[in-house]
Amino acid sequence: MKTGVVKFYNEAKGFGFITEEGTGQDIFVHASGLKEQIRESDSVQFEVVDGKKGKNAVEVTVA
Fold it and tell me: What is the CATH number of domain 2-62?
């Protein structure tokens, strides 16, 4: 399980980015990967999978 902070999340469009702790890398997150609602600046835990356009965060929960 990785940890990070929600950098941006657009609830209306259903996507955003999480900045991964340790690497500073921005990971794409889609609404389908959320286990609960998130907001910008939330600390979260997540798994990373390879998507069509790069890494995607899934199983996202607020830490």
Answer: 2.40.50.140
Beta-carbon contacts of 52 under 8 Å, excluding residues fewer than 6 positions away, are none
Give the Cα separation of 16 and 6 in Å (integer). Answer: 8
Closest to 41 in 3D by CA, of 13, 12, 14, 16: 16
Q: What is the pTM of this model?
A: 0.95
Per run of 10 residues, the mean pLDDT along the chain (length 63 residues) is: 98 98 98 98 98 96 97
CA angle 50, 63, 24 (to 5 degrees): 50
Provide the residue type at 20 as one letter.
E
